Amino acid sequence: MRGLISILLLSISWVQGSAQEAYLRQVNTLGNEFYPNEPSTCIGKTDPSIRIAAANIDHYYRSADTGNVWDAMLMGSALGIWGDPVLHATPDGSVYYTHLSRTPGKEEHYGYIDRIVVQRSDNQGKTYTPGVGVGLNGDKQQDKPWMSSDDWSTRFKGNLYLTWTEFDKINDSKSKYKSRIRFSRSEGKDKGDVWSPAVTVSDVEGSSMDDDRSLEGATTAVDREGNIYCVWAGFNKLFFDRSTDGGKTWGTDKVIAEQKSGWVMEIDHVHRSNGMPFLLMDNSQGEHDGRLYVVHGDTSGKTGADVMFTYSDDRGKSWSTPRVVRGTADSTIANDQFLPNACIDQRTGELFVLYRDRSECPFNIFTHTTLASSTDGGETWKLTRLSREATAPRGEDLFSGDYIDLDAHDGHFSAVWTEYDRYSRVCAYSSYGESPTPQPRPKRLSYFVEKSRGRKDLFVYRDASVLWHVKTYRKRLFGGEKYLGINLFHEKNIGKTDIKFADPSTIYTRDEIPRGWRKRNYLVIFGEKDYATVHPLQ
Q: How many angstroms separate the Cα of 280 from the Cα of each of 45, 252, 344, 406?
């Protein structure tokens, strides 16, 4: 859960296709005033042509033809919805939609997020139950849920497992307010309608400030014997615990890795990047059956922000030394890779990691979405760029979401992420039958700028059909920071095409730009390789 910012107009785009083709589809706005972020996705387990996605706060999308056509709607719940959507599909055909509550009558200091809400669909995501609350504990706040299920064991098959963070009073610095990791289960026969009283998994408590000192990002995984494993972040460490009795009791917490950056990672031009861990269990009965993986964000010290992973082949007793997913720890690429999420295709054992990637952008601002896949337990990785073009972040003063998501099942794959240019948009990529296919590299663009509808303070950069509202980026992306001066030119050039770029290495601060240029309303074009936006000077 994070604060959301209103925008005037919302555009949602889907990147979709099969292993042979991927393309962009526009979806009309639903009229919700909040821009979408924190998307989640799942693939139907009895019918993998079903693709489902959701995003903050209450956006919902469904495709019945492997991602070619999507229906969009707004979700509702008897207990309200305040975002953090998590979708999870089970082998019996059920789909679960988990999110934060917005309990009626409770408004002060996020008091309305007093429980986690679980809704179930019995018709492949067409409709859902009104929802039940999980974890209500007085006036404490319940945040950042994640769900898993036991799809294999004879003891607990069909059980659902839910983990989240409980805050005594979120964002309060008083030492008496704490955070902790909580857990609840729903037995198979109850199918998410009844949940056990919540228990605390973590042995130590964190702060209530929703920062690196808080305990957050708890995810679980289940093995074929029904053992439950849990991992979370806090105090610049990754913690691990397990339960052997279906979640009734838990063991002693174990630190399995240091997290130098903490889970609140500092990424340029991003409000906050979540480096929280995702825990996976390989139940494929393949070469690495029984292996636990943890994927998380961190800073290696050599290549900026990195996507890291570690694994255990002895049910969590010992762990490998964390490594960089894309193998760049000893390279010269210093750009950031961040906001990872991961999944396993339990039929093939193939491991997938989705993340935001600036490796193709020299100035470490514009960002692609990249998929790393491994068929040998993480020894080698195949990198696939899923996004068609690099996009700029929203800026450090606007929350852009704590996660992106992906799912894989029986050779089918689905990924969702958010991008921002003039409008916010949710993007989805779908493939089936083969590994995901990379998007083609865009050709070099020709640039031109034009005045927008007579407004003096707003200029528009256009390449093909993509529009950039520059007034937004003046304040949100570049305000008070260094300007990447690709070219300076006077407004007399407005409307001209094929503007010749200056040396890309030229860097100006606001104070270094000559006063005459500022007074005469010069524009600065900011760009990286083939991508650019414009910035009007005041």
A: 18, 20, 7, 13
